[in-house]
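Take a look at this chain, tokens included, and explain the fold to me:
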Amino acid sequence: MMFALRPSGLGDIDSMRLHLRSDRTVAASAARTFEILATGEGQAGWANGYRATTWYSNARAAGAIRDIHLRWITVRERFLAWEPAARFTFGADAMSIPLARRMIEDISFTPIDARHCTLTWQVHLDPAPVLAPVESRFAASMLTPMFEAFAAGLADYAAAHPG
């Protein structure tokens, strides 16, 4: 069963209540790091808890929809920005566990030179009302470590497989 979230667009980011951010310097180009994320290359190794991806479109572009299946949750994602070597952004349209009312992950790649980039993984969300009493603890103990680990895992994998 999936629980619908309120659809979000890029213009909604600033109005969301929680904002998480992880920055990493990656020893791989922005194009290669984007490619790894976009294709899911090695994702079972670098994204702890990752199980599978189900795409609902052959197109890999803004507007595409996919489900990401983690060990403990499935999230239906609708791409808001698909800019190779620059930006990989999606809004969550549904979740198997109703943890948020709105959510956007905004992942950007800033070239440093031909073989290095800065990876910035941001998560913006309005947690579900049921989480209000424990919202900050939930973000600090669950969400922040999970997304920090995803960013670190992607950076490490890209450095080990720079293409």
